[in-house]
């Protein structure tokens, strides 16, 4: 059961859930038709064109005993499955993006709420659902479910399907990691990253069972746990 709050417009569903986590039940979903300050990863913004599915899922209590990075992969696996149930093939770009034919269709932003300890985790998800086109600056990198399927997609149905998959896979690490690994987009690709302040070029080998990205550089293998790797040489954001 997921209690659901629906807003016609709000600044950010992640911000709302973070500010109100204490009074909201574990598993609450906050959905918005419009966001005026949608948050993306690494300080970016999530642009609302009025056709995307935007929601945040609150997890607190026992649900967050596992590594938060794994929760993000769990959410990615659930979203990938929900989209695939519409007959659209997806890839998962470690750690947080869902792609169709190499173009981003959805992003996941995980935010924690900490006092002395981690009190809650907010999983924010934005999916390009019914967009018919994108700004020329991102046209080659973004897609929508409608562009990929030539069908208008029901956002509520997609949300319900995601929640059902999330609940089914939750706690079954083997199952959701099998989905993540079999859909991994980066495997075999050359990636660029900044690692402890050093710019690196490496080959992505696989996603490990504990959710890290295994890289190889001049025969030496190492893993990175979070942050971002990019397929473009010009941009090297930090990875811890
Ligand atoms: C990313 O790709 O950088 C992550 C984007 C996450 C966007 C969603 S939209 C609903 C939720 N509320 C927010 O402010 N952000 C997330």
If you had to describe this structure to a student in words, what would you say it looks like?
It is a single chain. The protein is of the alpha+beta class and 240 residues long. The chain has two domains: 4-182, BirA Bifunctional Protein, domain 2 (2-Layer Sandwich), CATH 3.30.930.10; 190-230, Roll (SH3 type barrels), CATH 2.30.30. 23% of the residues lie in helices and 33% in strands. It has five helices and twelve strands. The strands form two sheets. A seven-stranded mixed beta sheet has the order 1-2-3-7-6-5-4, sandwiched between helices. A five-stranded mixed beta sheet has the order 11-10-9-8-12, with no helix packed on it. Helix 2 crosses helix 4 (155-169) and helix 2 packs across helix 5. The longest helix has 17 residues, at 68-84. Mean pLDDT is 92; it is low at 235-240.
Question: Could you write a compact summary of the structure shown?
Answer:
The chain has helices at residues 13-20, 68-84, 145-149, 155-169, 173-182; strands at 4-10, 29-35, 53-60, 91-93, 97-100, 103-114, 118-127, 190-195, 198-207, 213-217, 220-224, 238-239. The chain is α+β, with helices and mostly antiparallel strands and 240 residues long. It has 2 domains: 4-182, Bira Bifunctional Protein, Domain 2 (BirA Bifunctional Protein, domain 2, 2-Layer Sandwich), CATH 3.30.930.10; 190-230, SH3 type barrels.
């Amino acid at each position: 059961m997921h209690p659901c709050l629906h807003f016609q417009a709000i600044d950010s569903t992640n911000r709302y859930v973070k500010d109100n986590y204490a009074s909201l039940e574990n598993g609450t979903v906050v959905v918005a038709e419009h966001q005026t300050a949608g948050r993306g990863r690494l300080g970016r913004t999530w642009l609302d064109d009025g056709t995307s599915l935007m929601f945040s899922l609150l997890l607190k209590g026992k649900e967050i005993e596992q590594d938060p990075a794994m929760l993000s992969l769990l959410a990615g696996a659930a979203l990938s499955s929900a989209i695939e149930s519409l007959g659209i093939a997806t890839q998962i770009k470690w750690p947080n993006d869902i792609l169709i034919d190499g173009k981003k269709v959805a992003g996941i932003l995980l935010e924690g709420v900490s006092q002395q300890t981690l009190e809650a985790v907010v999983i924010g998800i934005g999916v390009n659902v019914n967009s018919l086109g994108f700004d020329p600056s991102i046209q080659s990198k973004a897609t929508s479910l409608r562009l990929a399927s030539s069908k208008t997609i029901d956002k509520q149905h997609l949300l319900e399907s995601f929640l059902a998959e999330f609940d089914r896979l939750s706690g079954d690490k083997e199952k959701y990691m099998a989905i993540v690994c079999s859909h991994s987009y980066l495997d075999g690709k050359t990636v660029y990253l900044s690692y402890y302040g050093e710019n690196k070029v490496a080959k992505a080998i696989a996603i490990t069972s504990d959710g890290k990205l295994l890289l190889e550089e001049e025969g030496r293998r190492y893993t990175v746990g979070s942050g971002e790797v990019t397929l473009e040489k010009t941009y090297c954001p930090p990875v811890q």
